[in-house]
Specification:
One of its GO terms (molecular function) is DNA-binding transcription factor activity. This protein is mainly alpha-helical and 226 residues long. It is built from eleven helices and no strands.
Length: 226
């Protein structure tokens, strides 16, 4: 085979591999959004139109597939934390971080569970990444408290509570951006010291009858008198 033919063949194999990898990542995000990040790997392979062996060749473990599927979102979170630490106003930095992560939870339905399971400590590198993120969040919290803008009794673990609460909302109401924005605004105002600041976003178009539907996945009669 001529050298030019061998190069063309190799390029074709690499292009096929890139296309397969991209199909797998697109399929993974779709399957994880529908069935959660514990969905069978075979389901992802079927959605991507590739064999299970091909999937495992690109992503040997579930953790690798989850990290690959949401690599862009994780990078956005890391960048938001860096930007928050660099912000001249610690409160604005804190607010930027919370709003950015919650927006990602809202925009990518499978991301909340992936974020909750982020940085599994399966390697020393991942363990260091988790420790670094936790240290940076603690620094951000302490700066905002020292500036007198964040409640003195706020703890970094409260940020996990915020994200879990918002995760529950966007899981139950994945298409309700108004409800998401209003919850985030309420939570941020509850953490701030001093004046409440900007008005809340417009209310969501919900009623008490929405609660059984959101919680049970089917319409209900609502509360008595609702």
């Amino acid at each position: 085979m001529a050298e030019s033919s061998r190069i063309t063949a190799r390029d074709g194999v690499r292009a096929d591999a890139r296309r397969n990898r991209e199909r797998i990542l697109v399929a993974a995000r779709a399957v994880f959004a529908e069935r959660g990040i514990d969905a069978p790997m075979a389901a992802v392979a079927r959605r991507a139109g590739v064999g299970v062996a091909t999937l495992y060749r690109h992503f040997p473990t579930r953790d690798a597939l989850v990290r690959g599927a949401y690599a862009q979102q994780m990078e956005t979170c890391a960048r938001a934390l860096t930007e928050a630490l660099a912000a001249p106003d610690p409160w604005q930095g804190f607010r930027h971080l919370v709003e950015t992560v919650c927006a990602l939870q809202r925009e990518e339905r499978g991301f909340p569970a992936a974020f909750a399971a982020a940085f599994p400590e399966t390697t020393p590198e991942l363990a260091r990444a988790r420790q670094r993120a936790e240290r940076d969040v603690l620094t951000l919290v302490r700066r905002a408290q020292a500036a007198g803008s964040l409640r003195a009794d706020f703890r970094p673990s409260d940020l996990a509570v915020v994200l879990l609460a918002h995760c529950g909302l966007v899981t139950a109401l994945p298409d309700d951006e108004a409800a998401s924005r209003r919850l985030v605004a309420y939570l941020l105002q509850s953490f701030r010291v001093g004046p409440a600041g900007a008005p809340l976003p417009p209310p969501a178009a919900l009623s008490l009858r929405s609660l059984p539907m959101a919680a049970g996945g089917r319409p209900g009669r609502g509360f008595p008198g609702a």
